[in-house]
Amino acid sequence: MHIPAIAILARGHHKLARQSVSLPIAIILGALLCPPLQAGEVGDNAKSNATSIPQADIPWMSGGIGEEARDEMRKAAASYNVHIVFSNRQGSYLADIPFAVAGRDGRQIISGVSEGPLLYIKLPPGGYRISAQIDGAWQHRRIQAGTTRQPLRMAFVSRGE
């Protein structure tokens, strides 16, 4: 377990005063000397992002609950050409939203549950129907993916209160 440098320095603050080192300099030195955080120490919110299995034909990523998780999603956003946001009418984000994507022929090609308000999907160029279940009712949108270099952005908004 890593103890933050500030906690270490706060405990020894009286020693710092006797050694005539200013507290700001001591904090900077402490931060430089502390071991770096390991990848396994990512906050709980970032851990809530979910991705499709690596072998999936259609990769997707969902999450975005909390600032850390949103930052992680933003870093990966360029790899996905469809960006979806789930919210209610007041603009509050929604999570645990079932979704499905069907091809032009109507056959379902992927489905899952978005762990958070953001869902990114990497679809091959073509026409699709994207569906999301919000407030117990399915909403559907027809899209054309892969027609521009910019990701297709869309939102599913709760029709309830």
Describe the structure.
The protein is an alpha+beta fold and 161 residues long. The chain folds into 2 domains: 35 residues, no CATH class; 114 residues, Immunoglobulins (Immunoglobulin-like). It has 5 helices and 9 strands; from the N terminus they run ααααββαβββββββ. The chain starts with a helix and ends with a strand.
Shape: globular
> Which sequence of strands runs across the widest sheet?
1-2-6-3-9
Q: Which range does the strand content fall in?
A: 25-35%
Helicity, in percent?
Answer: 10-25%
Global structural class: alpha+beta
CATH class of the largest domain: Mainly Beta
How are the elements arranged and paired?
Blueprint: H1 5-11, H2 13-18, H3 23-33, H4 44-47, E1 50-51, E2 60-63, H5 67-76, E3 82-87, E4 97-103, E5 108-114, E6 118-121, E7 126-134, E8 137-145, E9 152-157
Parallel strand pairs: 3-9
Antiparallel strand pairs: 1-2, 2-6, 3-6, 4-5, 4-7, 7-8
Helix pairs in contact: 1-3
